[in-house]
Structure formats: C-alpha cells, structure tokens
Specification:
Layout: E1 14-20, E2 25-33, E3 39-40, E4 43-46, H1 51-71, E5 77-84, H2 92-105, E6 110-111, H3 120-127, H4 147-166, E7 175-179, H5 183-194, E8 198-202, H6 206-216, E9 219-220, E10 233-236, E11 255-256, H7 268-275, E12 279-280, H8 283-286, H9 289-298, H10 304-328, H11 332-345
Parallel strand pairs: 3-5, 3-6, 4-5, 7-8, 7-10, 8-9, 10-11, 11-12
Antiparallel strand pairs: 1-2, 2-5
Helix pairs in contact: 1-11, 2-3, 4-5, 4-9, 4-10, 9-10
The protein binds nicotinamide-adenine-dinucleotide (NAD).
Length: 346
C-alpha cells in the first residue's frame, strides 16, 4: 500500500524507512507535525508481525505525539520511531548504533527518547551517533527514564477523574485494575498503593505480578480477566487497542485512564464508553508526563519546577475536557482531539 492512501496517513510531514543489513536494523521514523517545534516521541522496539503493522503503528503513534505535545503545551512537534525487532539473535549495540545514524539522517526534524522495549542504555548508544536524542541518564541536561514522570502525570490526572466522576478526594479505598506492570504501570501501582488504593493486576510476565502481590498486596488475575474486574478505575498500561468491541462490554470500572498510547482501537470506542457512563481520560493527555520531562532536557537546561508545573497542567486540561464533554454530550476523546487540532493549527 502506498503511504498516501494508507488509512492512518494524516498529512504526515515525513515518513522514513531505514535498513542496515549488517546489524539487522529495519525501522520507520515518522514526523507528523513540526508546527510547534522539532518532532519528538519515543522509539518502540517490538516484534511486529510484519512491516505493515510497524508502519501503521508509526503513523498512528506519531500523530498521537503531535496531539500529546500540543495538549501538554510543550515546544515540540509529534514524531515516533519504530524498530522491527529482528528474529533470532542480534547485536543490540550495533542495531541501536545503526538506528542512531538513521535519526541523524533525518537531520534534526525528529528527536527520540524511550518507548516500549527501549531503555536509557539504548539511548546512550544512539547518542554515540546523533545529538537528536533525549531521555539520557548522563550529560548536562539529562532527564533519565521518562517513565516515572509519565506515572506521576497519570496519578495526578486520575485524581481529577475520581473527583469529577466519583466525587471523592484521593484514592483511599478505591479499587484500581492495572493492565501491564512495566516501567509506567509498576510505578503507577506503587503510587496508588501508597495512597490507599487496592490493586488488581494482570501482566503476561508472571514475575512482575508476583512482585506486585508481595510488595503492593495486589490481587493477580489473568490478562483476559482484567477488564471485567469490579474496579473503580481500569488503567490500561500495556499496549494500545485495549478498549475495543470485544472488551468494552466487560468493563465495569467507572473510569478508564492509564499509560498506553492509542487505548481506543477505533475512535468510536470513545462514544461507546460515554454511553456506558464510563469516564475516559484521553490517553495522550493523561500520559504526557514522560514527554514533558524529555522536553525539559531538549530545552538544554533541565528545570524540575518547569516539569512540575506542566504535570499540574495535565489536571487543568483534563478538567476542561471533562467539563466540555459533559456540557456538549460528546465523548472526551473527540473533545480532546478538537482542542489538539486547534492548537496545532495555531
Ligand atoms: P513496558 O514495556 O515497560 O511495559 C509494558 C508491560 O505490559 C510489560 O510488563 C508487559 O509484560 C505488559 N504486557 C504486554 N502485553 C500485555 C497484555 N496483553 N496484558 C497485560 N500486560 C501486558 O512499557 P512502558 O514503558 O511501561 O509503557 C507502557 C505503555 O505506556 C505503552 O503503551 C507505552 O507506549 C505507553 N507510554 C509509555 C511512556 C513512558 O514514559 N514509558 C510514556 C507514554 C506512554
């Protein structure tokens, strides 16, 4: 399929593919929109079923980054990189070096950081080939792993959601079902546990669920059963598409909000949640904490008070979306998209 007729093509400014037969690198880098600044968004390293799936992912994720960065009011455009994980053994350092050279070829239009499957160690390797990388754990303005900041923003935003939907302050006594206990999900679980929430968790990795049971007194359920739990909040913190035609009728929570990008498999799931009286926290608004932290590093001088103010702003933005959604009887994802598009235009 050609790029321009791809259903997820959204006037992306640039879509690049790179390969390096020596290291096995095959990747896409998509620059969606640079109106607000150089495009930034993490790199995903994933075993895609085929390159069409990787292309779809990079187109959707880069557009979401434009919306996310606009909603977070940071001076960055939207972009994303996806690397197709090679089958069999490979030299990780060689592969990420080649990826660094690919980013350098994009000439500063795209600045990368961590996403699923990628660590600060990989960022260090990329840095040997290009300066267009953040999320580093050493260097003048280094901001480190963005995940704890993503979890922090989600935690703050969910506080607004419970106030709006349930009329309560804080998480004491609430039940939260968390899907995926990775870098963000586990950190979020720790914050919620500390503030008195009871946790129900599911992950394909039994080691992390066992750790959550021991450290956070979490109840473990299977990955198929996590949707149907009697919880106040359902927090999708694994991969995208968790809310779809097969899962939506199982969800009993009053609020959906978590880390995963593109939680709604199709946009109509936003209205489907609204008609079931479930409050949806638009993913790219709620999970912007990591890119906010990255933006502080990209600015050249890391200032936590700036990060903290932007994390607080997630609360104000969410409240605005909830209020507009209530008064217009429109789903929160559509309200958020409208505001994001308006900000991108201006
Ligand atoms: P991660 O890879 O560290 O964690 C993902 C976790 O989900 C892993 O523990 C994995 O085992 C689990 N998982 C995978 N499939 C699952 C399934 N079907 N059911 C239950 N668990 C499953 O990734 P992360 O950095 O924590 O990111 C999680 C999500 O949040 C991703 O969608 C990512 O794009 C998004 N996100 C991350 C950040 C960040 O700062 N890391 C920022 C914004 C958005």
């Amino acid at each position: 399929m050609s790029i321009f007729s791809h259903p997820d093509f959204d006037d992306h400014e640039g879509v690049y593919s790179f390969s390096d037969p020596v290291s096995g690198l095959r990747c896409y880098i998509a620059v969606h929109n640079t109106n607000r600044g150089p495009a930034s968004g993490g790199t995903r390293f994933w075993q895609y079923t085929d390159d069409a799936a990787a292309l779809t992912d990079v187109l959707r994720l880069s557009r979401a980054m434009s919306y996310k960065n606009a909603m977070a009011e940071i001076p960055l455009g939207g972009g994303k990189g996806v690397i197709i994980k090679p089958e069999g053994s490979f030299d990780r350092a060689a592969l990420f070096s080649a990826y660094g050279r690919a980013i350098e070829k994009v000439g500063g239009q795209y600045i990368t950081a961590e996403d699923v499957g990628v660590s600060p160690d990989d960022m260090r390797v990329i840095k040997t080939q290009t300066d267009f990388v953040a999320g580093l754990d050493e260097g003048e303005a280094a901001s480190g792993d963005p995940s704890p900041h993503t979890a922090d923003g989600i935690y703050r935003g969910l506080g607004v959601a419970v106030q709006h939907k349930l009329g309560v302050e804080g998480f004491g006594g609430l039940i939260v079902a968390i899907q995926g206990l990775g870098h963000v999900g586990y950190n979020l679980a720790q914050r919620l546990y500390k503030s008195g929430a009871r946790l129900i968790v599911a992950d394909i990795n039994p080691e992390v669920t066992a750790r959550a049971a021991t450290e956070l007194n979490a109840s473990i359920v299977s990955v198929d059963d996590i949707y149907a739990q009697d919880a106040d909040i359902f927090a999708p913190c694994a991969l995208g598409g968790a809310i779809n035609a097969e899962t939506i009728d199982d969800i009993k929570a009053y609020i959906v909000g978590g880390a995963a990008n593109n939680q709604l498999r199709t946009p109509d799931m936003g209205e489907a949640l609204r008609t079931r009286d479930i409050l949806y926290c638009p993913d790219y608004v709620l999970n912007a904490g990591g890119i906010i932290n990255v933006a502080a590093e990209v600015s050249g001088t890391y200032d936590y008070s700036w990060v903290d103010a932007k994390l607080e702003n997630i609360k104000t933005t969410l409240q605005d979306i909830f209020t507009r959604s209530d008064s217009s009887n429109r789903p929160t994802n559509e309200v958020a998209n409208d505001i994001a598009r308006e900000r991108l235009r201006s």
